[in-house]
Input
Amino acid sequence: MLPSTYQSLLKPPAMLITASFVLYFLVTLAFAVPAGHYEQIDMPSRVLLAVVIFACLLKYPPSLKAVLYGCSIGASIVGLIALYQHYGLGIRALSSGGFMSIQVAGMAASLSVFSIFAYIFSCQRSLPTLKKIAFVGVTLGFVATLLSGGRGSWVVTPFVAIWAIIYYRHALKRRDVIAVTVSAALVIVTAVVPALHRASLVVSDLDRYQHVKSVEIAAEPAAEQQPKIKTSSGTRVELWRTALLLWADNPLTGTGYDRFTEKKQDLVDQHIVDPVVMLFSRAHNQLLEELQVKGIIGGLALVFLLLAPWVATKKIQSKPHSDQGFASVVLRCHIVLIAGYMLTQHYINHHSGILFFTLGVVIFASMALRLERS
Output
């Protein structure tokens, strides 16, 4: 990094965010290197790239208006792709052609929420072009989220979207409220039926999971180790249960990467968990993933990674109608959304997830912090 950009990281708020990134990487490094699992360093190393970008953006912050334009256009594009795949090709939206549906569903949901903020920003600043593009982005973005069937992205997204509208309700005029209603109606008409079908599968999956577990309790343990749980939601519940058992066995440092598979196999051999857990290398919950492998040390590093940007922009958030305050609010919503996606998947253990999270943080944080200093 050049001295001119490096100096930007020396301010306390920027140092706090940088420290959270570096700490997350160092904790993973400390667990991976002694165990010889060097591949585990790959994803966390992306935070170092984010630090370099953060330094540059603090020196040369992007335009908030330009970023919101980009989010709205991005949401519109992903919505068009989802519509074409679902209604044109007759396949599950955003699940083929290189897409990972559970990841891209979260990204589409975030872009949809960012489009809501773009619409609000256009109302505050009288930007009619941005308002039109944001309206399309909100509508198509939420259509993409629902058509993708990524149920993990539906957990907190509606609450964040509704909160944003209520928080900035004074910026919305009567015609804007009508626009919000029309957008919601279009989303419902276009995508609610496939979404309800996907949502109903959760209930049936959990019913089948409970049936399998009740049969296991009543029957004698079988000698063969064949998975009995064969549903998506049921498998996740069993993975979460396994992660909690592994963490409880060693709360401080977890199993480590070197003993993780062995310890999990022990639980299967003792007929404590279903053999289906051996088919998955992750817990499908980011916090439980950190706890089972790295214990409380890894869990705290993850929590610090999420809280540091929030704390760093605490003072700025008190000015929500300024550009820096607006960027701070969007940053916090970004963090809440990512935390929501982490509930049902190891979101930042994927290239797309950790880049989307960290770059989102540094982009919005750089605007908030740099604009605040100027």
